[in-house]
């Protein structure tokens, strides 16, 4: 499981740094649209619960109380879990991360890195942005079927729990 999580994180970071951020640099015009994964049929409630269970298992193993949200391909909430002891403020944040990952078809880590590492501040002027890791699109058969968002810890903790949940779909 740890190997899958590490692999997923490394692939995500490599995708972000090799395509997304460079494509956003002023003056650079990419040949193809970055993050142009098409939307697919929405994830159902039963599958969303499987993701929640996988993410919650990772959070429990690490003793991190989290809020975990799964949205469908339209950005609508499908499933949610507030673990015992998870902070109340993180309820809306987890939902927001999942919604943004679907709407913008990219992990919310992209926005965090755009602001913090690449100083691309205009990102914050876009509608409904959250520049905090812990939101990951769910891709099946090359289409986005939803996203998972996690909140309750610091960014890397949220991302680790989210990655464990997303691994149920994102193989």
Description:
Helix content is 44%, strand content 16%. Helix 1 crosses helix 4. It has helices at 2-23, 45-62, 89-103, 109-116, 155-166; strands at residues 67-72, 77-82, 135-140, 143-151. A hairpin with a 4-residue loop joins strand 1 (67-72) and strand 2 (77-82). It is α+β, with helices and mostly antiparallel strands. Residues 3-23 have low confidence and may be disordered. The protein has one domain: Haem-degrading domain (Beta-Lactamase, 2-Layer Sandwich). The chain has a four-stranded antiparallel beta sheet with strand order 2-1-4-3. It is globular.
Present the secondary structure layout:
Layout: H1 2-23, H2 45-62, E1 67-72, E2 77-82, H3 89-103, H4 109-116, E3 135-140, E4 143-151, H5 155-166
Antiparallel strand pairs: 1-2, 1-4, 3-4
Q: How would you briefly describe this protein structure?
A:
It contains five helices and four strands; from the N terminus they run ααββααββα. It is an alpha+beta fold. It has a single domain (2-166), classed as Haem-degrading domain (Beta-Lactamase, 2-Layer Sandwich), CATH 3.30.450.
Key words describing this protein structure:
171 residues, four-stranded antiparallel beta sheet, disordered N terminus, 4 strands, alpha+beta, Beta-Lactamase
What Rg, in angstroms, do the CA atoms define? Answer: 15 Å
* Strand count: 4
Oligomer: single chain
Structural class call reads alpha+beta
Average of per-residue pLDDT values: 88
Tell me about the biggest sheet? 4 strands, antiparallel
Q: Which second-level CATH architecture applies? A: 2-Layer Sandwich
Distance between the termini: 12 Å
Poorly predicted sequence stretches spanning 5 or more consecutive residues: 3-23
The CATH topology name reads: Beta-Lactamase
Supply the number of structural domains: 1
Strand fraction equals 15-25%
Query: What is the helix content?
Result: 40-55%
* The CATH top-level class label: Alpha Beta
What is the CATH superfamily?
Haem-degrading domain
- What shape does the CA trace take? globular
The total count of helices amounts to 5
